[in-house]
Amino acid sequence: MNEKYFWIYGKHSVLAALANPKRKVKKIFVTDLNNINYNNKSIIHLVEPKKISKLFYPQQASHQNIAAEIQKLPSENVENIINDNTQKKIIALDGITDPHNIGAIIRSAAAFNVDAIIVKKRTFDSCNPAMYKASCGAIEKVKIIESVNIKDTIKILKKNNFWIYGLTSKSNTIFSKKILNEKNVFIFGSEENGISNILEKSCDYLAKIKISNSIESLNVSNAVAVILHETFC
């Protein structure tokens, strides 16, 4: 088990971490004891707001007067996803590194019962407190697969009857859930570069979201929410 600990902030983030039986919580800082109801009182510390702010300096963290030191969870294994027959909805993030975008995507994934998100291990900041805050606690409910090589992970999924859909504005096809299979992977690229060529070639389908001609594209976290709503509602 990875023994790395790090700090997160925000009421929803902290309470969700406490509610996750897989997550170890080492320490909690609060400015008001009425803001926390937790049986293990020994890890709760009453502090001034500025002590919490210093934990995240120079970031101007909207910490809501609560923070927790938590243990990093290990990466999920793609084979476990394949072997679990309930797992049919996966998102892959290609080149997306902004923690606020990733946190928002995780929140949408939890809202629409997506059980796994594939990220590139080398560029994924798994201990970023802003990502935890943006996910509003949802990160405790979604499995994160930290892949050394996303192409290889996609190849494994394809061999196990997952269909791969790349969302790109370069496509002439408008996305429709009519083309979906029982097991689906949706690849989203960065707003700057889109899906990489190597992953684009791995896709069974390329499609785009239908939007007004007055705007070129959506923020990637908004695009994820639109696709998930279109697919699963």
What does this structure look like?
- The chain has helices at 11-19, 49-55, 78-83, 99-111, 129-135, 150-159, 197-200, 220-232; strands spanning 5-9, 25-30, 44-46, 66-71, 89-94, 116-120, 143-147, 163-167, 184-189, 205-207.
- The protein folds into two domains: 5-71, 60s Ribosomal Protein L30, Chain: A, CATH 3.30.1330; 78-232, Alpha/beta knot.
- Helix content is 30%, strand content 21%.
- The protein is elongated, with a radius of gyration of 19 Å.
Summarize the structure.
The protein has helices at 11-19, 49-55, 78-83, 99-111, 129-135, 150-159, 197-200, 220-232, and strands spanning 5-9, 25-30, 44-46, 66-71, 89-94, 116-120, 143-147, 163-167, 184-189, 205-207.
Which keywords apply here?
six-stranded parallel sheet, four-stranded mixed sheet, alpha/beta, Alpha/beta knot, about 20% strand, about 230 residues, 60s Ribosomal Protein L30, Chain: A
Give the neighbour order of strands across the main sheet. Answer: 7-6-5-9-8-10
What is the mean predicted local confidence, pLDDT? Answer: 92
Q: If you compute it from the alpha carbons, what radius of gyration comes out, rounded to the nearest whole angstrom?
A: 19 Å
What is the overall number of helices?
A: 8
Total domain units: 2
User: Uncertain spans, ≥5 residues at pLDDT below 50?
Assistant: none
The CATH topology of the largest domain comes to Alpha/beta knot
Q: Look at the structure and give the CATH class of the largest domain.
A: Alpha Beta
Second CATH tier, the architecture of the largest domain: 3-Layer(aba) Sandwich
The largest pleated sheet is described as: 6 strands, parallel
Number of strands: 10
Strand fraction: 15-25%
Looking at the structure, what is the overall shape? Answer: elongated
Straight-line N-to-C gap: 38 Å
> Approximately how much helix is present in the residues?
25-40%
The run of helices and strands is EHEEHEHEHEHEHEEHEH
Q: What do we call the CATH homologous superfamily of the largest domain? A: SPOUT methyltransferase, trefoil knot domain
Pairing-aware structural class of the strands and helices?
alpha/beta
